[in-house]
């Protein structure tokens, strides 16, 4: 669908020239010569960009009319993207307009190419503003119904929350490390929500999901014509998070060749979009996360040390669930209550002996796996109290559980599953595992089972 652009100017020649230039490039253009028409036009059409003259009364050149109409437009639609048309050399007025919320200004007489590129950028900004506001509403909804509450009052989690509280008060770059499902995303959101940027967007980007060939255009944006198929300009993820927090998840997946480009942009806090020439400043708080051993990636020359220095001003390591077993009963109770409410089931209980078994389970997929299995148990259980089978610990792996490929994790969960299957009979468990009882004891001790 072509973007709708409204142009309001009392000079009909200006209207005609702008209409021709923009319509030729695929915009759907509406014009008006009297600003009084603006409210009615805005009620009828959803304009992605409004181009507004500064002076409408003959002989008046101080621009107050433009500023008044800018304010009215923004009252009507706070997300409206307005570009002001100013007389040549009236930079002071243009600056005032931008302080009052205009996106940009264009001086008369303009160069058509500049007009088209300014309007294209403005359309993109409006689009990403709407996306971000949708994302914000989704985030809010998710945290309300999914409980972004961070559960865990044991010493390991208290240490994490203490760090979170300290970094939230600053704008420092944070690196969150931990196995899959330990809550890296949750902690990143918590830092954002507790920071001064909480009213601005929190924009998560999965670095593993961006193909190398699209890295620059996705992150830094691109200009129209930058590559085949770039039929309009687009801002990148960094600018889309402007004013808020950019959360780069799976940072270990950034291709090595792209790392110096990201480093430069983070150092200078300025970027040039693909195919562009001008530098644009941005203002973001950066949080990164990884489940990889980043030091190992550096040793293997797959991650740059200087980029790590840039992103890990403060590092927050998240403990695996095995390392904070004390929180497991609390997490089970929390999710049990949450899913019983969600699925309108009566209060399902976990007996103390099952609680003990679940606390001893190694949970290779960490909190995500625990949450997922509680949800399944609540949906499928015949009644209260819940039984071990309701948790199907034997198939207890979560979709995203990459740490499951770790041999030690596999051994540990294999042993826990065998003990589970033999209902605590260790001779039988050793038999199932094809090892001696003594070896089983040794391994149980090793894994704290
Ligand atoms: N301490 C916690 N309290 C409550 N819920 C938690 C906690 N930690 C994690 N969760 C929940 O577990 C699930 C997985 O958490 P999250 O996505 O934050 O993990 P992650 O470390 O980012 O995982 P991945 O590395 O796979 O992206 C989410 O539903 C999250 O809400």
UniProtKB/TrEMBL annotation:
Pfam families: AAA_lid_14, HTH_8, Response_reg, Sigma54_activat
Top-rank taxon, per record: Bacteria
Residues annotated as domain Sigma-54 factor interaction: 150-379
Residue span(s) of domain Response regulatory: 4-123
InterPro entries: AAA+_ATPase, AAA_lid_NorR, CheY-like_superfamily, Homeodomain-like_sf, HTH_Fis, P-loop_NTPase, Sig_transdc_resp-reg_receiver, Sigma_54_int
MF-aspect GO terms: ATP binding; sequence-specific DNA binding
Biological process according to GO: phosphorelay signal transduction system; regulation of DNA-templated transcription
Protein's UniProt keywords contain Nucleotide-binding: yes
UniProt keyword terms in alphabetical order: ATP-binding, DNA-binding, Nucleotide-binding, Phosphoprotein, Transcription, Transcription regulation
Ribosomal protein in keyword set: no
4-aspartylphosphate carried by residues: 53
PANTHER family, sorted: ALGINATE BIOSYNTHESIS TRANSCRIPTIONAL REGULATORY PROTEIN ALGB, TRANSCRIPTIONAL REGULATORY PROTEIN
Protein name: DNA-binding NtrC family response regulator
Species of provenance: Spirochaeta isovalerica
């Amino acid at each position: 669908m072509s973007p709708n652009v409204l142009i309001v100017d009392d000079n009909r020649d200006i209207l005609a020239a702008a209409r021709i230039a923009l319509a030729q490039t695929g915009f759907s253009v509406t014009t008006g010569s009297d600003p009084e028409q603006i409210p009615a036009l805005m009620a009828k059409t959803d304009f992605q960009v409004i181009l507004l003259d500064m002076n409408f009364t003959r002989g008046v050149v101080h621009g107050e009319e433009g500023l008044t109409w800018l304010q009215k437009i923004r009252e009507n639609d706070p997300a409206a993207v307005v570009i002001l048309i100013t007389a040549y050399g009236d930079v002071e007025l243009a600056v005032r307009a931008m302080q009052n919320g205009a996106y940009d200004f264009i001086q008369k007489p303009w160069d058509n190419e500049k007009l088209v590129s300014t309007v294209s950028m403005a359309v993109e900004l409006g689009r990403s503003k709407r996306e971000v506001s949708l994302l914000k509403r989704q985030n809010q909804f998710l945290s309300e119904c999914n409980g972004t509450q961070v559960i865990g009052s044991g010493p390991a989690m208290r240490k994490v929350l203490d760090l979170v509280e300290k970094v939230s008060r600053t704008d420092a770059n944070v690196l969150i490390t931990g196995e899959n499902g330990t809550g890296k995303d949750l902690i990143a959101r918590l830092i954002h929500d507790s920071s001064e940027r909480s009213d601005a967007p929190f924009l998560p980007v999965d670095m593993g999901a961006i193909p190398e060939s699209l890295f620059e255009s996705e992150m830094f944006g691109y200009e129209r014509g930058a590559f085949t198929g770039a039929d309009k300009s687009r801002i990148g993820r960094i600018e889309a998070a402007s004013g808020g927090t950019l959360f780069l998840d799976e940072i270990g997946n950034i291709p090595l060749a792209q790392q110096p480009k990201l480093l430069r942009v983070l150092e200078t806090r300025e970027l040039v979009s693909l195919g562009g020439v001008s530098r644009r400043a941005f203002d973001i708080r950066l949080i990164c996360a990884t489940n990889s051993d980043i030091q190992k990636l550096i040793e293997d020359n797959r991650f740059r040390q200087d980029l790590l220095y840039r992103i890990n001003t403060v590092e927050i390591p998240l403990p695996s669930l095995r390392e904070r077993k004390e929180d497991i009963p609390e997490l089970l109770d929390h999710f049990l209550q949450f899913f019983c409410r969600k699925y309108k089931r009566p209060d399902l209980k976990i007996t103390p002996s099952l609680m003990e078994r679940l606390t001893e389970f190694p949970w290779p997929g960490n909190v995500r796996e625990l949450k997922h299995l509680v949800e399944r148990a609540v949906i499928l259980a015949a009644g209260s109290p819940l039984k071990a089978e309701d948790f199907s610990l034997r198939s207890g792996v979560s979709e995203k559980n990459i740490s499951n490929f770790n041999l030690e994790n596999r051994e540990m969960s294999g042993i826990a599953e065998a003990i589970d299957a033999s209902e605590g009979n260790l001779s039988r468990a050793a038999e199932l595992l094809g090892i001696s009882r003594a070896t089983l004891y040794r391994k149980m001790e090793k894994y704290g089972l």
